[in-house]
Amino acid sequence: MKPNIAIIDYGMGNLRSVAKAFERVEANPRIIDTPDRADECGALILPGVGAFGQAMERLRETRFDALVRDWVRDDRPFLGICLGLQLLSTESEEFGPVQGIDIVPGRVVRFTGTQYERSGDRAGLKVPHMGWNTLKLVKDHPVTEGMPTDAMAYFVHSYYCVANDPNWTAITTDHGVEFTCAVARGNMFASQFHPEKSGDVGLQMLANFVGLVESAA
């Protein structure tokens, strides 16, 4: 029987692409717009694109912030994607500081520095960080099982997470600075990159996550 996967709809994120990716890895995604609809699901997904402050406002209005906090505290399978990773932090400097859900101690900061600027004939790195980049596995986790050493994933973001506790960091990547692009602990995993847009590598991660959901049932 396919596991039920709850995808949070709080008005920010391409929910359909995430749902279709989970359908491809033999899961039963359910897009939910109220916390109580997660009751019959074995996993919770927090996607998102856009501004941190607006997202937190929507999460608080719908009480999904409390659901996410309780879900991760209880070590139930959880996946955050893109902004869904950043929102787990203590705070973001984007139009802020703005308080986050405060699960992963740390801040969300913008890519800044001369390496991102144009100087004479030398083209600097672009912000937003957009496109494919190489992943560096820092610690093992069921979601990254079988990930090749040269794995690449797809990114679209101008801000990134700085984790206060390095034990949270599962994967890093480099865009002018090496930064945490995935965090993991227990049955939770969250990535700055989009697994649903990252080809075979991303689908393998989602399939691994579904396996994690099945083993936790």
Features:
8-stranded mixed β-sheet; 14 strands; 5 helices; 217 residues
Can you characterise this structure?
The chain is α/β, with parallel strands linked by helices. It has a single domain, classed as 3-Layer(aba) Sandwich (Rossmann fold). It is built from five helices and 14 strands. The protein has helices at 15-24, 52-62, 64-73, 83-86, 199-216, and strands at 4-8, 28-32, 43-46, 78-81, 89-92, 98-99, 104-110, 129-134, 136-137, 152-157, 159-163, 169-174, 178-185, 188-191. It has an eight-stranded mixed β-sheet with strand order 2-1-3-4-14-13-12-9, sandwiched between helices. It starts with a strand and ends with a helix.
Q: Helix amount, in percent? A: 10-25%
* CATH architecture designation: 3-Layer(aba) Sandwich
Beta strands, count: 14
Strand order of the largest sheet: 2-1-3-4-14-13-12-9
> Which outline best applies?
globular
Query: How many structural domains?
Result: 1
Number of helices: 5
The CATH fourth-level homologous superfamily: Class I glutamine amidotransferase (GATase) domain
**The CATH topology is what?**
Rossmann fold
Flag low-confidence runs. Answer: none
In short:
By secondary structure, this protein is α/β, with parallel strands linked by helices.
Q: Which secondary structure elements does this structure contain, and how are they paired or packed?
A:
Elements: E1 4-8, H1 15-24, E2 28-32, E3 43-46, H2 52-62, H3 64-73, E4 78-81, H4 83-86, E5 89-92, E6 98-99, E7 104-110, E8 129-134, E9 136-137, E10 152-157, E11 159-163, E12 169-174, E13 178-185, E14 188-191, H5 199-216
Parallel strand pairs: 1-2, 1-3, 3-4, 4-14, 5-7
Antiparallel strand pairs: 5-6, 7-11, 8-10, 9-12, 12-13, 13-14
